Amino acid sequence: MTPFQYARASDVADAIKQIATDPSARFIAGGTNLLDLIKYDVTAPTKLIDISRLPLGNVEQTATGGVMIGALVPNSDLAYHPLIEERYPLLSRAILAGASQQLRNMASTGGNLVQRTRCFYFYDATTPCNKREPGSGCSAVDGINRINAILGTSESCIATHPSDMCVALAAIEAIVHVTGPAGTRTIAIADFHRLPGNTPQRDTNLEPDEIITAVELPPKGFSANYSYLKIRDRLSYAFALVSVAAALELDGDTIKDARVALGGVAHKPWRSAAAETVLRGQRADASAFANAADILLRGARGFGHNDFKIGLARRAIVRTLSQAARGTPQSISDKKIR
Length: 338
Ligand SMILES: Cc1cc2nc3c(=O)[nH]c(=O)nc-3n(C[C@H](O)[C@H](O)[C@H](O)COP(=O)(O)OP(=O)(O)OC[C@H]3O[C@@H](n4cnc5c(N)ncnc54)[C@H](O)[C@@H]3O)c2cc1C
Ligand code: SF4
Hints:
- The chain contains 12 helices and 11 strands.
- Helices cover about 30% and strands about 20% of the residues.
């Protein structure tokens, strides 16, 4: 075991001060991802800065009609919060599709945004991996890549972002609030996660000395016509092979507004402005949804084991949009277990 220091941050300013003075320190919130990364020798922080007691645990309405979610709100509390269940049920369903009840009780909103890929080779420190060790190569391209990306890949990395919550946040167009030595700033969720390019070691545009303080949801929650569909190898406790968050605003049968985000297929939640534009003004039917799916999947490329994801994603997009259009009630299989 590599020794490390442990310190609890007394407030947000103290957390930033502590991380700024030690570039190889890491914040720890619920610890459900970071502790695994340490145990697998993927990362070896010199210091863990415990932020779990900071006062970032509220879910509140904003003056502009949206909702502000503190970075330390546990995933389970968020999914079952009345404001989220009523106004942003897409987010609630996406969170409940992830991990297990015990993990959701520990996992924080901020930690979920920064969780790292589940690429097998990333967690196997004996294999080359550009994300873990820049310049060492990518074992997944010619390896077991069943769970890897089909969109937005680069020669350096074909990893996916594993979060369910972030797929719904992308469809809702959430805003991430962060604080660092230079003050506070906001990052649109679309700009928060990065594509791998030639810097796959960087998952997000968060600076190493910045802390996420909150996630803001805009007023529009698409609470009538939404659906989250997660396709995975087991019915629970498994990451998405493909997931789809669909949100529609309908005027009768006509689509006024549409959002579609994909999970399990790229290094970040995947959206296409062109696919959403083509849906607006159309009749909400299978042919419009198939057309949008084709646009969303433009440029998709498999790497052997994951070729199946292209057809799977196409079918999943059409099915999820159809469910959203019908206002199909979401699964009750994962009803509250507290
Ligand atoms: C077995 C298993 C199955 C899982 N299945 C799923 C699944 O199906 N779907 C899914 O979406 N997720 C799944 N997860 C992942 C889980 O949701 C994440 O591990 C969790 O959300 C991370 O939150 P945390 O608070 O525990 O983060 P931590 O482990 O504490 O931290 C993770 C990273 O985020 C950073 N961090 C944490 N908080 C902040 C902050 N406020 N500001 C800046 N940086 C911060 C840490 O420094 C660290 O780098 C699974 C996890 C496990 C272990
Ligand atoms: S896909 Fe990315 S994370 Fe996986 S082995 Fe290649 S470089 Fe590493």
